[in-house]
Each structure stands twice: as structure tokens, then as C-alpha cells.
Design goal:
Layout lengths: L6 H9 L11 H11 L6 E7 L5 E7 L7 E6 L20 E2 L2 E3 L3 H20 L8 E6 L7 H9 L7 E4 L7 E5 L1 E10 L3 E2 L9 H15 L13 E9 L5 E2 L2 E10 L5 H18 L4 E10 L2 E2 L5 H12 L6 E4 L5 H8 L3 E3 L14 E3 H19 L1
Parallel strand pairs: 3-6, 3-7, 7-17, 8-16
Antiparallel strand pairs: 1-2, 2-6, 4-5, 5-18, 8-15, 9-13, 9-14, 10-12, 11-13
Helix pairs in contact: 1-3, 3-9, 5-6, 7-9
């Protein structure tokens, strides 16, 4: 395969490979990337992480095998298409029109992945030497279970990296903070009864509704972060019941909690456990099971970190916004930064408002800006 370091062409090829959750199929993109870098095998060391026959993550190292350097970290999976009738373009056709490239993953985040890849390729072929290692990290399963980044973290291969760039969608703004995500799954087991005799049953749905209301009151978000705003707790699923005239014996409740730097997720779990104890006073024979199904801590980098100031200087040269921002979503950095405690920035060409949307797109102008920014970051930190 020949990719002439054209970021538009590469992005279109990536979009045309369906990596939607829950299947993922990231192995197709990993194999393509290995093919692209094959001519430079003497300059590039690769490590493939196989999660299943169709799911892979990839880590490439360019330059010397030593401490320090820079890692770009991007995920290859996307969310599902949803109702295709809501799309005016083919979700995997990568249509180019009116200065935009459309398709699932165009914003979140195959555009950022394409830009970081081409930036590295241009460095390889541009006569520049690397005095520090440059890592390109391509992860599977970020949108659901984070199995890719967790496998890479467990390998220890990024332990000595100095700086991290996360090309998630920010519209090329410089983000240095992201909200945490704590997803709680509750299962309520009561007792069924005829709808005309509710006193003979234990209504799991009603108990779940009571629990939801009490948790909404118990989770208080008084603080406001300068870049992230306030935290939140949302009821996102409530399921139960089989027939109108049957007291439901089982219910499921799920909550999406978004937290700010300085918050401890353990405190939210303690509150939830206390509310379960209170609920069981009202429903003594009720059984309640609590499981955190996502636990990504909030993270931030100090604004006077060398990486942050450097990236601000580079985006200023592009006449872009230098004001530092925060992102409400979580990224793979939430798995890496708490372990490694290194500076990071989130900066990518997609617009955050387009993530997970029908007719998802990225502006070609932003894509090319990101490519130039990444090239300069590599030169400044690795050459």
C-alpha cells in the first residue's frame, strides 16, 4: 500500500474501515498501519497487542530506545452508527464535500489519529533525526472497556515517556483538563406478585425509583472548575417489569457521574452504599447489587508545564486560540496519567460537538492545522 503522506487520503481509508463498537474490528486499521510503516522497519519498532481475533492495539516507537520523549495516544474504535436513516451521507464512505470529510470517526477521533500518523511519517522521510523516542499509540476499545490502553499500560512500555499528546476532538484548542467518569450499575431483586395484591410482593422498580431520587439529592456538586464547570450525576437507564399486572421483581438502574479534579470516586461509592442501606430499611427483603462499570478519574496538567507552554506557542503561530480549556469527556489519558504523572495536552482537529453525531465530520482546514501542529511538537520535543 502506498500512502504518500496525505492526511486526507489516510483519514478516508480509516473511515472506510468499520471499527464501530461493540465489535470494534480495530485489527483492520492496525494491519493497515503496519503496512504503511513497513518500509521504515529499520527505524520503527512495533508491538501489537491482541485482545481477540478482530481487536488489536498497536504501539510504534520511532527513534532511540531510551527514556523521555513524546507519546501520541489515539483510539481506533468508534461508537455505533445508530439509525442510518438519520445520516445524509454514507457513514463509512468518507465523503469529501464543502471542505469537510464525513463519516463515523471523522471527528472522534480518526482525524487526530491520521494527523499524528502522517506527522510521524513526514518526520521519518524529511531528513530529521530523533534524539528522543517518539511513540505512536493506537488503542482499541476506548469507547467501552478501555482494554487497549490498559494492556499498553500494563506492558510498562510508556513508563519513561516525558509528555503525552491526546488527539481527541478539541477543534484544535489546547485542553489541559478532563472530567472524570464514574458509571454505576445497580441491580434490584425483589419479589413478584399479582398486580392486584402488591402487598404480597417487593416492587423492585419502585425501589429503583426511590434510589434514583435519593442519589440525585445525595450527589452534591458545589464546586465549579475554571475549565470544566461543575460535575453532574445523570440517571441514564432504568429498566424493569414484564407486564402491567405483575409487580416487578427485578430492576436495573444506571447512573453517569462526571467529576472534577480533586474529587474522589471512592466518596461517591461510599454515598451510594449508604443510600442502599437506607433503602433496605424501607424494603427489608430487597437485595441490591452495586457495580461500578466505568471508573475514569478526572485529570489535569498545570498550565505552566513546559509541554503546555510549547503547544500554546505553536498554536499561536497558526493564529489559533491559545486560551487553555478543559474537556467534559474522558480519554485514554485517564488510564495513563494517574499512573505515570506526566504532563499531557488534549488537542485534535475534530470538533467536540460532532462526536457521536449523525453526519459526523471534520473540517479539512482543521485537519491540516493539526498535522502542522503535531509536526512542530515532534520537532521541538524529539529532535
Amino acid at each position: 500500500m502506498t500512502i504518500k503522506h496525505n492526511v486526507i487520503t489516510l483519514l478516508q481509508k480509516m473511515i472506510r474501515l468499520n471499527t464501530c463498537q461493540p465489535e470494534g474490528n480495530e485489527a483492520d486499521v492496525v494491519d493497515m498501519l503496519l503496512d504503511i510503516f513497513a518500509p521504515y522497519r529499520k527505524q520503527v519498532e512495533s508491538r501489537v497487542f491482541e485482545h481477540s481475533s478482530r481487536r488489536k492495539s498497536l504501539l510504534l516507537r520511532l527513534g532511540p530506545n531510551g527514556s523521555g520523549g513524546l507519546a501520541f495516544v489515539g483510539h481506533l474504535d468508534t461508537v455505533a452508527i445508530g439509525d442510518e436513516s438519520n445520516w445524509s451521507v454514507g457513514p463509512h464512505e468518507a465523503e469529501l464535500k464543502d471542505g469537510r470529510i464525513y463519516g463515523r470517526g471523522a471527528a472522534d477521533m480518526k482525524s487526530g489519529v491520521a494527523a499524528m500518523t502522517v506527522a510521524a511519517l513526514k518526520h521519518l522521510t524529511g531528513g530529521h533525526s530523533l534524539n528522543k523516542p517518539l511513540y505512536l499509540v493506537y488503542t482499541a476499545d476506548e469507547e467501552k472497556g478501555s482494554s487497549g490502553v490498559n494492556a499498553i499500560k500494563a506492558s510498562g512500555l510508556l513508563t519513561e515517556v516525558d509528555y503525552y499528546v491526546i488527539p481527541e476532538p478539541t477543534d484544535n484548542k489546547v485542553a489541559i483538563a478532563e472530567s472524570g467518569a464514574l458509571w454505576l450499575h445497580f441491580e434490584f431483586q425483589g419479589k413478584s406478585a399479582h398486580g392486584s395484591q402488591p402487598q404480597n410482593g417487593i416492587n423492585a422498580v419502585e425501589a429503583a425509583i426511590v434510589m434514583a431520587a435519593e442519589l440525585k439529592k445525595a450527589f452534591v456538586f458545589d464546586e465549579v472548575h475554571a475549565r470544566l464547570g461543575s460535575g453532574s450525576a445523570s440517571i441514564t437507564q432504568l429498566k424493569g417489569g414484564i407486564l402491567t399486572n405483575v409487580i416487578p421483581e427485578r430492576a436495573v438502574l444506571e447512573m453517569d457521574i462526571r467529576t472534577l479534579p480533586g474529587c474522589r470516586h471512592e466518596d461517591f461509592l461510599d454515598i451510594a452504599k449508604r443510600q442502599i442501606a437506607v433503602l433496605k430499611q424501607q424494603y427489608p427483603a430487597l437485595k441490591v447489587k452495586l457495580e461500578p462499570i466505568k471508573n475514569m478519574p478526572p485529570i489535569e496538567t498545570i498550565e505552566d508545564a513546559h509541554l503546555v507552554r510549547l503547544v500554546q506557542e505553536i498554536v499561536a503561530q497558526e493564529s489559533l486560540q491559545t486560551e487553555l480549556v478543559g474537556m467534559s469527556y474522558y480519554t485514554d489519558a485517564a488510564c495513563l496519567i494517574p499512573a505515570y504523572k506526566k504532563p499531557f495536552v488534549i488537542l485534535g482537529p475534530g470538533h467536540e460537538a460532532m462526536a457521536h453525531q449523525a453526519d459526523e465530520f471534520v473540517a479539512i482546514e482543521r485537519l491540516k492545522e493539526a498535522l502542522r501542529i503535531y509536526q512542530q511538537i515532534i520537532v521541538k520535543l524529539c529532535s
